[in-house]
Structures are given as structure tokens and as C-alpha cells.
Design brief:
The complex is a heterodimer of chains A (about 300) and B (about 300). Chain A is mainly α and about 300 residues long. Chain A is built from twelve helices and no strands. The chains are: A mainly alpha (about 300), B mainly alpha (about 300).
Chain lengths: ~300, ~300
């Protein structure tokens, strides 16, 4: 990621005063990402105000129409306003992504801490467990479990959380392995500190930063994953709008109207692009050593 | 290690039915099924045996290469998998080839001509497409080329036996799956090649007067490809996951469609068999990637690389 060198303008002076975010905003792509993420969050918060119609309101005579003054993005197969459904869909996107990533982060950090600190047989068991979950492509694992659990929002959150645990466990474990060799950990131990104190007070704070960056970068991936599961009918139940279910409805009526697919697809692409650009820039700012690991 | 993982994966899938709440026989038949029908299906599925026996039987059958029978039609699941798997493998292979054959040359060009217009276009392309999920790419391609322009076929495999028609039906699904990978690979190859080109041995080779072309292709690229191969190993899993969506969108009768249809029909034994086969393939693909990069860089020892 390149920084643009500007002459000392007022803009730059302001940016210099904001820690971290200022550095992110100095990169044009980072600033674009930030704007998109901010816009998305505003839509999530103010969905009730921004949506012109309730997401269930039907106007049967106006089924599958294109953009018009009445319906800015057109309507779906039941004559529901696409714009309103996409706006409310943002709540599902974030409402699934945040708890899923939180579950994955918590589970992964716990597993990684235990494996990395304990070592030996415990470590071996956790590594084999992680490798076994990793043996399933995430979508396939989700399909296997959701086929039994049935489609529901809570099941979806649980399954995504589970599928993402190995990534966090692996990174945590690697970090713990290097941090626990530090002299200050040994000093603490020789002073008689309990294991729980060493892990919580000394190891955890030192391993958490890269994990939080990873979590930020996983949000867009999880958002597309959720939409994918909803596209397959394994996510939220109708009439609750998810971007994936809007795509799925659009797919069923693809010959009658291109609009549901076009708008839902673009919304998904722009949102995830925003999160990705913001996440990548944030990572470069916070931990330059990691840059380039994802091909940028 | 790989064998251990495969055994655990198999056991996990055998036990999953019992961990997850609900009775698969009831799921299969619906809540209004008669108790004696449920009892019969439970017996057929082997659900009345103790869990340990079920797991042992499943593991034993899988070891013998037997994936069981479809409860509805009594057809062997092996036959269903045998029909579906080739179509998925062809799709995965053609997408991977498309991504590698365009992504790597683009990456090499970008690294050797930094800031050229093609480098900039690749960067833009890569950033724009990196977040496009395969199902959105598939739907957009379907909408543009099959529904609107009607230049390429929308669904299915084409007429039986007609190779040209089969290939024409393969184009859109292949592009849909490959599109995120082209830019990603290009950026990855570019980044690692630029890093390798700064190494002392490359500069030494240049200083010794070896031609730039030889240094680039014989020494630098080989090392620069190691991270790419590692990513591709993991990427095959994503490709398999993406294939589920692409097969459903383009109505290709592959593993993804098979698993999806089985979920719709609540036919869990087929879901389980399909998932097992895909997981096995994924693990084997990763093993292959491990072998490839030990070949590319003999300093990496197998087994240690995973730690």
C-alpha cells in the first residue's frame, strides 16, 4: 500500500492528529474502504429511517419492475421494494458476521492458548483437531451440519463460527509459542505466578493484536459466506431479507427481471470491497510485517 | 498425519448425526410420518445400533470404498458419486488451469514491468474481483451472456457425447470460479517475485552475467512460486466450496448439486457421503501441494512445514 505524500495541507495536519485511523485515511484505497464501511454501518443503524417501505410490504401489480420514482431500485417477485429489502438485509449481514467472528475468535484464542502454552500431548491433540476441521472446505462443513440442524439464523451463526475457529487457533498457537519463550514470562514464572495469571496478563495481551486484525479482515469473508448460505436457502427464513436470499429469489426469476440479482450482487461486492480495503490498510498501518501476506 | 486426519474426518461425519439434536429418520420422513415407518427407516439406516458399532461399521465400509446405499432408491451411493465427481473435477481443473495460466504470467509481467499500464490494470482488476464471490460472478455471467446476450448456453452439460457442446457449457462456470483467482494469483506472484528478485543470490547471478531471462525463469520464479503453491493447496478447498454454488447456478450435475439436492430431500446419508468425498479430495490436494513445494524447495521438510 503506497502513501501519497502531500504538501503539509490542513487535511494532512488533521490526519496527523488522529492515531491509526489517520494513517488509514492517508491511503486513498484505505479512505475509500473507510467511507464504504462507515456508509454500511450508518445504513445498518438507520435502516428504519432510510428504508422507504417496510421490507414485507407487497405491491403485487408492480411485481419485478425496474427502477422507478416509486421504487428506486425496482421490485422483487412479490412486488416488494428492493431498496428497502437491501437496506434491512444489511442488518442480517452484520448481525450474522459479528457474532460468528466473535465465536470463532473466542474459540480459536482459547484453543490456541491452551495448545501453545501446554505443549506436548495437549498441543498434538489440538493440532489434529484443527487440521480435521480444516479438512472440510468451509461451505461443505456448513452444508453437512446445516443439513441436520435445519436452516435458522442461530444455526448459521454457530456453523460459521465453528468453521472459522481453526484459523484463529492456528495464529494464536503460533504467537503463543514465540511469546512464551520471552524472558519476562520466565521471570514471572520464577516469581511464582500462576499459569492463569501468566496466560491472561502476559501472553494474551501480546498475541491479541494480529488476531483482531485477522477478525477485521474476516468480516467481509463471513458476510459473503452468510449470503452464500442464504442463497442456498440455509440461512434466514423468509420473509426476512438477506442479501443472499434476494439473490436466490432473483435467480429464480432471472428471465423476468435482471434487477434483484444486479442490485444485490453489487451491494455485496461493494460492501465486501469496502471492508477488505479498510482491513488491508489497517493491517498495513498496525503491523507492516504482515503486509503482502494476502497478495497485496 | 494425513491418514489420522482422514480417519477423524470419517468418524466426525459418522458421529455428527448423534451430536446434532433431532432424529435423521424423522428429518428424512417429515414430522407427520408414522412411527412404524420411522422405526423401519431407522433400522435401515442402522441408527438402532450403539453409536460405537455405527461408527465402526461406517469406518469399515469407507475403508473398503463403500459409501452405503441411497435409502429412497436403494442405489449404491458410490454410483451417484461416480456419476457426479467427474463433472466437479473437470470444472475445478479447468478453473484452476484458467487461473494459473493467466494469473502467473500476469504476475510475472507485473513484477518485471512495475507501474506499467498492464501492472496497473492487473492491480485494479485484482482489487475489484478479489471480493466477488463465485455465486455473484456466476449469476452475473449467467445474466449477461446466457440470458441477455444469449451467446453461451445457460444450464446443464450439453448434448450427450458432443465434446464441443460440453466445452461450451463449461465456459461460464469455469470463468465464474476462476475470476477471483486470476487477480489474486497475479498479485501474489508479483509480490513474491519482487521479494525474491531482491535476494543476494539473484543479484549475484545477474552480476555473474547470466541472462536476465534465465535468472528470472530458472532461479527466481521457482522460489517465488512456493507461496503460490501453498495458497493453491488451501485454495482448492475454496474452489470446491465455490463449485457448489456454480454447479447449482449452471445446473451441472456435480458433487455440489448432489449434496444440495440431498439436503433438499433431507437424504442425510448422501449428504454425508458427498461431504466425505469432498473432504478426502481436499486433504489429498493439500498433500499434493505439500509435495510440490518440497520439490520446489528441498529445504522445506514435509511434516515440519505444517507446524
Amino acid at each position: 500500500m503506497e502513501y501519497i505524500e502531500r504538501p503539509t495541507s490542513r487535511y494532512r495536519l488533521v490526519l496527523d492528529r488522529i492515531p491509526i485511523l489517520g494513517d488509514v485515511l492517508r491511503s486513498p484505497l484505505g479512505a475509500l474502504g473507510f467511507l464504504i464501511v462507515l456508509g454500511f454501518l450508518l445504513v445498518v443503524i438507520f435502516a428504519d429511517v432510510l428504508a422507504p417501505y417496510p421490507y414485507t410490504a407487497q405491491d403485487i401489480p408492480a411485481r419485478l419492475t425496474g427502477p422507478s420514482a416509486e421504487y428506486p431500485l425496482g421490485t422483487d417477485q412479490l412486488g416488494r421494494d428492493l431498496l428497502s429489502r437491501l437496506i434491512y438485509g444489511s442488518r442480517i449481514a452484520l448481525g450474522v458476521a459479528l457474532p460468528s467472528v466473535a465465536i470463532a475468535l473466542t474459540g480459536g484464542v482459547l484453543l490456541g492458548l491452551v495448545a501453545g502454552y501446554a505443549g506436548g500431548v495437549v498441543d498434538d491433540i489440538v493440532v489434529v483437531l484443527i487440521d480435521s476441521i480444516n479438512a472440510f472446505p468451509a461451505v461443505i462443513l456448513a452444508l453437512a451440519i446445516l443439513a441436520l440442524l435445519g436452516p435458522a439464523l442461530i444455526n448459521e451463526i454457530f456453523v460459521i463460527g465453528l468453521a472459522w475457529i481453526p484459523g484463529y487457533a492456528r495464529v494464536t498457537r503460533a504467537q503463543v509459542l514465540s511469546v512464551k519463550e520471552n524472558v519476562y514470562i520466565e521471570a514471572e514464572r520464577s516469581l511464582g505466578a500462576r499459569t492463569s495469571r501468566i496466560i491472561l496478563m502476559h501472553i494474551l495481551p501480546n498475541v491479541i493484536a494480529p488476531l483482531l486484525i485477522l477478525a477485521a479482515m474476516d468480516l467481509p469473508v463471513v458476510i459473503t459466506f452468510e449470503a452464500g448460505l442464504s442463497f442456498l436457502g440455509l440461512g434466514v427464513r423468509p420473509p426476512t431479507p438477506s442479501w443472499g436470499s434476494i439473490l436466490s429469489d432473483g435467480f429464480n426469476y432471472i428471465r423476468q427481471s435482471p434487477w434483484p440479482i444486479t442490485w444485490a450482487g453489487l451491494t455485496l461486492i461493494i460492501t465486501t470491497l469496502g471492508f477488505t480495503l479498510f482491513g488491508e490498510t489497517l493491517r498495513d498501518v498496525l503491523d507492516p510485517r504482515l503486509s503482502g501476506t494476502r497478495g497485496f | 498425519m494425513t491418514v489420522l486426519v482422514l480417519v477423524i474426518v470419517t468418524i466426525f461425519l459418522a458421529v455428527l448425526v448423534h451430536i446434532v439434536p433431532g432424529d435423521p429418520a424423522v428429518t428424512l420422513l417429515g414430522p407427520r410420518a408414522k412411527p412404524d415407518t420411522i422405526a423401519r427407516i431407522r433400522a435401515e439406516m442402522g441408527l438402532d445400533d450403539p453409536v460405537f458399532i455405527q461408527v465402526r461399521d461406517f469406518l469399515w465400509r469407507v475403508l473398503q470404498g463403500d459409501l452405503g446405499e441411497d435409502i429412497f432408491t436403494n442405489r449404491p451411493v458410490n454410483e451417484l458419486v461416480g456419476n457426479a465427481l467427474p463433472h466437479t473435477l473437470i470444472l475445478a481443473w479447468s478453473s484452476l488451469s484458467l487461473a494459473v495460466l493467466t494469473g502467473i504470467p500476469l504476475g510475472v509481467y507485473s513484477a518485471t514491468h512495475p507501474d506499467s499500464w498492464l501492472d496497473r490494470v492487473t492491480a485494479l482488476f485484482s482489487i475489484s474481483f478479489i471480493t466477488v464471490p463465485s455465486y455473484v460472478a456466476g449469476l452475473f455471467l449467467l445474466l449477461i451472456f446466457a440470458v441477455r446476450l444469449q451467446v453461451l448456453p445457460a444450464i446443464g452439460l450439453g448434448e450427450g457425447g458432443d465434446l464441443v457442446d460440453y466445452l461450451r457449457h463449461l465456459i461460464l462456470p469455469t470463468v465464474a470460479l476462476a475470476v477471483t483467482w486470476v487477480g489474486y494469483l497475479a498479485r501474489l506472484v508479483r509480490a513474491s517475485l519482487l521479494e525474491v528478485m531482491n535476494e543476494t543470490y539473484i543479484r549475484a547471478a545477474m552480476a555473474a552475467g547470466i541472462s536476465q531471462r534465465l535468472v528470472l525463469y530458472k532461479y527466481a520464479l521457482k522460489n517465488a512460486l512456493i507461496p503460490t503453491v501453498a495458497i493453491l493447496g488451501v485454495g482448492i478447498g475454496k474452489l470446491m466450496g465455490g463449485a457448489v454454488f456454480v454447479e447449482i447456478i449452471f445446473n451441472r450435475p456435480g458433487m455440489g448439486t448432489m449434496i444440495y439436492n440431498a439436503i433438499q430431500a433431507r437424504n442425510y446419508p448422501i449428504v454425508r457421503a458427498g461431504v466425505l468425498v469432498v473432504a478426502f479430495l481436499f486433504v489429498l490436494a493439500n498433500l499434493l501441494a505439500d509435495f510440490t513445494y518440497t520439490y520446489l524447495d528441498p529445504r522445506i521438510e514435509l511434516g515440519k512445514a505444517q507446524r
